[in-house]
Amino acid sequence: METPKLRKIIHIDMDAFYASVEQRDFPELRGKPLVVGGSPDGRGVVATASYEARTYGVRSAMSSKKAQQLCPYAIFVYPRFSVYKEVSRQIREIFSRYTDLIEPLSLDEAYLDVTEDKLNIGSAITIADQIKKAIKDELGLTASAGVSINKFVAKIASDMNKPDGLTFIGPSKIEKFMEKLPVEKFHGVGKVTAERMKMQGIRKGSDLKKLTEERLALLFGKSGKFFYNIVRGIDNRAVKPDRETKSISSEDTFGSDLDKGSEMYEQLLQITQAVFKRINQYQLFGRTLTVKVKFADFKQITRSISFEHPINNENDAYQAAKTLIEQTDFDGKLVRLLGVGFSNFHEPKPKQRNRIEEQKLLF
């Protein structure tokens, strides 16, 4: 039997994309702590921050108030989405010189399958290097690239030497690499899952690898099989161009159960802000909002509401989610998990755009 041909996958991740474009276009911002999105009066959410601001702990999705506290001298600017859109179109054009198999993940990252590249270069490392050079020479921006035989490892690799990095993890090194990787570095393992793993004595890939697929399924449900495979470097997912996003959601499981009070509404606000960060990235505004509630006894309910027009304002989304919660009879039960999701998307016309609500899926 013929051995299957290994894929050549590149993950490209732009470095602090919004902030880098602003610093490129406005030299007076270079070398200074820059925050794109939000405002210094504490309103709004950080879309991205320059590396100078990140040294103070400022991160995307952080409240502007928190960013201001961490970095009092930060410069806040509103996003210029028409500019970002044009730059992203140019980045996509550079990608397309090498392959048509381009799968967008968000505004600033994408997978490329260059197993068979258009220019017959053959080397994924060379292609990644040429893409990075073209982005720098033609657009004055930097990107980091990860190269491997599958999407999961390529994505981890792209984050290893930021900014302006290029990391290759070859097939013979994948398993050893995954064994040493802390579980919180696994793409798809969030804070809650990482803590659950650590409670089970799973701190690195080597710990994860000791468990059977059945045991992992028992502990982590459907994700168990995924964890079993990826710690062994197995990821057969294909790069899928132009994939359609049908829903965008965010949820959180709480360390201690909540009652129907102010603390729960604070959590609901944070979850709504988190999902809106993703909505902003994709520029997909939904007409239907859904709230998910899981109680302490693990029973689960969902409540939805649909509108004539898409919700393109974070506060409107929160008020709608809050209304759904207020109208729900909890029957005295405590809440273990809350989630907020959007579907039934509508792409807004240019006149409908709002500052931080304007982000688009541009790759």
Q: SSE layout and pairings?
A:
Elements: E1 9-14, H1 17-25, E2 34-36, E3 48-49, H2 51-54, H3 64-70, E4 75-77, H4 81-96, E5 102-106, E6 109-113, H5 124-139, E7 143-148, H6 151-158, E8 166-168, H7 174-180, H8 191-199, H9 205-209, H10 213-220, H11 223-230, E9 247-258, H12 262-282, E10 285-295, E11 300-306, H13 314-326, E12 335-346
Parallel strand pairs: 2-4, 7-8
Antiparallel strand pairs: 1-6, 1-7, 2-3, 5-6, 9-12, 10-11, 10-12
Structure description:
Helix 10 packs across helix 11 (223-230) and helix 12 (262-282) crosses helix 13. 36% of the residues lie in helices and 21% in strands. It starts with 8 loop residues before the first strand and ends in a 17-residue tail after the last strand. It is α+β, with helices and mostly antiparallel strands. The protein has helices spanning 17-25, 51-54, 64-70, 81-96, 124-139, 151-158, 174-180, 191-199, 205-209, 213-220, 223-230, 262-282, 314-326; strands spanning 9-14, 34-36, 48-49, 75-77, 102-106, 109-113, 143-148, 166-168, 247-258, 285-295, 300-306, 335-346. The strands form three sheets. Strands 5-6-1-7-8 form a five-stranded mixed sheet. It has a four-stranded antiparallel sheet with strand order 9-12-10-11, with helices on one face. A three-stranded mixed sheet has the order 3-2-4. Strand 7, helix 6 (151-158) and strand 8 (166-168) form a beta-alpha-beta unit. Residues 347-363 have low confidence and may be disordered. It folds into three domains: 1-170, Reverse transcriptase/Diguanylate cyclase domain (Alpha-Beta Plaits, 2-Layer Sandwich), CATH 3.30.70.270; 174-230, Orthogonal Bundle (DNA polymerase, domain 1), CATH 1.10.150.20; 247-358, 2-Layer Sandwich (Dna Ligase, domain 1). It has 13 helices and twelve strands. The radius of gyration is 22 Å and the shape is globular. It is found in: Cytoplasm. Its cofactor is Mg(2+). Mg(2+) binds at residues 13, 108. Monomer. Belongs to the DNA polymerase type-Y family.
